[in-house]
Design a protein that fits this description.
Elements: H1 8-41, H2 55-79, H3 85-112, H4 124-155, H5 164-189
Helix pairs in contact: 1-4, 1-5, 2-3, 2-5, 3-4, 4-5
């Protein structure tokens, strides 16, 4: 396809998709650096061996997977112009919030076990765990903001003809889901 022949709208759509991909790649690089530093730090003598992840992290993994399914179904529903799209978007939002609540519950479990982020009682192991999960939650918060915008725009019937914003949010949400699955598996297997 000759890119000079594309309409301005097609170029705009292509640019927005490319910007999302650049953003997601940069997030991957951030977490690649964090997990690499984690692996290198495992050789430290003060590293905690056989560290157990909080139970809430297991549950949050299930919750974020179900939220991705709900968003997938919302997109299918939107494209078929079915009425349950709004309910599925709200379900995705509620599950996203539940993920954040479960993450904080996991932090409480860590604190109750005597593992702190900073201070005299902190360890390199738990500090990495806190940083990795907090940085992911910051991105998930951005995803919740995007999801809120999509929900409002959907209720205003903005996606009848042009669904680009919905599609971009959908891609970003699934990216956050897969990112957490990677982080969870990494933290589970590289303890």
């Amino acid at each position: 396809m000759d890119y000079t022949q594309q309409s301005l709208e097609e170029k705009n759509i292509r640019a927005k998709k490319m910007m999302l991909w650049f953003g997601m790649i940069s997030v991957c690089m951030t977490f690649g650096g964090l997990t690499s530093a984690y692996v290198v730090s495992k050789s430290r003598p003060d590293w905690i061996e056989n560290f157990e992840l909080p139970a809430a992290f297991y549950w949050s993994t299930v919750v974020i997977l179900v939220s991705s399914i709900a968003f997938y179904l919302a997109k299918k529903s939107l494209l078929k112009k079915q009425p349950q799209t709004t309910a599925l978007l709200i379900t995705t939002m509620v599950l996203g919030i539940a993920f954040v609540v479960l993450q904080f519950s996991g932090f409480n479990e860590l604190i109750q076990q005597g593992y702190f982020f900073t201070g005299a009682q902190s360890t390199v192991t738990t500090s990495f765990l806190y940083v990795i999960t907090i940085v992911h939650m910051a991105h998930l918060f951005a995803g919740l903001v995007v999801l809120s915008v999509v929900l409002v725009r959907h209720t205003q019937q903005k996606y009848r003809e042009k669904t680009l914003g919905f599609e971009l949010a959908h891609t970003f949400w699934h990216f956050l889901d897969f990112l957490w699955l990677y982080l969870f598996a990494f933290l589970y297997f590289f303890r």
